[in-house]
Structures are given as structure tokens and as C-alpha cells.
Specification:
This protein is 46% helix and 11% strand. It has helices spanning 4-14, 54-67, 90-98, 108-117, 132-140, 154-159, 164-195, and strands at 45-48, 71-74, 83-85, 102-105, 121-124, 147-148.
């Protein structure tokens, strides 16, 4: 399984603790997959919001003001964004994330790509939502401090640089464990289909 939430579900349903591997985002390099988006500003704050709340919009506005950059909303309309790229596909989305100056999000996969590509970011904790998967991945790479509770915490989060050296070392160890487990599992599976 790829996260603590799934691990707990399997344990509860089957009474067995499964092996936890990284999300597939971390296991592929995505080279050659991205597609450029025309007329994208050279520098911008990418906004990827799965659940809307006023606290998220306030945090985006604070980030825009601090960086003096426009906010570009990816995939969904966001009232706090200067522009919304609604009709983009996954290839364009990847391009927009990788080329952003900063990301404000509440998305698990948005966070995964920031960690992978060492992109400055913060996560806005959404009132009344379970962000256990987000908390888990951030904890595993030592970046739990990137979660903020609201706009009053934006400046301190943005003034606190991210040490991607530490997170990359932790990620590399997790990636090795994950690819090792998956290679072994696939080899066993391949062996059993050949003997049947």
C-alpha cells in the first residue's frame, strides 16, 4: 500500500499489516511527459486547491502579496487566483507545477511533486477535513512544518527555507525500500505464473 491510511484499512479488514511503499509519483522521473503551457508568466505562484475554504484563499492572497507574483490556479477555479488554467491536462499540469516559483496547496499529489522537484510550498490545513495522507508523507520526509493553519502563518512559513537535502536523503531511502519491495514482489509473481 502507499500510505498509512491504506495500511490501517488493510490491517483492520484482514488482520495483516501490509508493506508500505511510496506513492508512484516518487518512483518515476516523468522526463519528457510535460507539455508547455503558452503565455504562462515567467514567475508565478501555482495554486492547486482540491477543497475550497476562505482560509485557503486568504493564505494564497498573503503568499501573492509576499512574493509580489500572480497566482495561477491549476485545474479548478479559485477566486484568489489571477488566472485559472481550467482545461489543462495532466501533462500541462506537471509543467505548471515544475515551473512554478511557489505552490500553495491542500493536495497530496501537489505536495508529492513539490517534494520530488524541490519546489518551495506550503500546505493549508483545511478545517473539518482529514489530511492524514498529507501529514504522513510530510512526516516521512521531515517536512511536517510546511503545514500552516491559516493566513497568519504564511509569512513565517515562507521565511523558513526548506532543507531539501534532508528530505531528499529520507526520500532516497524510502525509494530504495519501495523499489526493492516492488521488484521482489513482481519477481515472485512472475515466477508463480511461469510455474502454473
Amino acid at each position: 500500500v502507499r500510505d498509512v491510511v491504506s495500511r490501517e484499512m488493510v490491517d483492520k479488514a484482514c488482520g495483516r499489516i501490509p508493506t508500505e511503499v511510496l506513492d508512484p509519483v516518487f518512483l518515476d522521473d516523468f522526463e519528457g511527459v510535460e507539455r508547455p503551457v503558452p503565455k504562462l508568466p515567467e514567475k508565478y505562484v501555482a495554486v492547486y486547491c482540491l477543497k475550497r475554504a476562505e482560509v485557503f484563499s486568504q493564505a494564497v492572497n498573503a503568499a501573492k502579496a509576499k512574493l509580489q507574483l500572480p497566482a495561477i490556479s491549476l485545474g479548478v477555479l479559485s477566486p484568489c487566483a489571477d488566472e485559472g488554467l481550467i482545461g489543462i491536462g495532466p501533462r500541462e499540469w506537471l509543467y505548471c507545477i515544475r515551473n512554478a516559483s511557489y505552490l500553495v496547496t491542500n493536495s497530496f499529489h501537489g505536495v508529492c511533486f513539490c517534494i520530488k522537484w524541490k519546489l518551495p510550498f506550503f500546505v493549508v490545513r483545511m478545517p473539518g477535513t482529514d489530511q492524514q495522507r498529507l501529514d504522513d508523507v510530510l512526516s516521512r520526509v521531515g517536512l511536517s512544518h510546511r503545514v500552516i493553519e491559516g493566513p497568519d502563518h504564511v509569512e513565517s512559513a515562507m521565511d523558513s527555507p526548506i532543507d531539501f537535502t534532508e528530505s531528499e536523503a529520507k526520500l532516497a531511502a524510502l525509494r530504495d525500500q519501495s523499489t526493492g519491495f516492488l521488484a521482489e514482489a513482481l519477481a515472485c509473481s512472475n515466477h508463480s505464473t511461469q510455474t502454473n
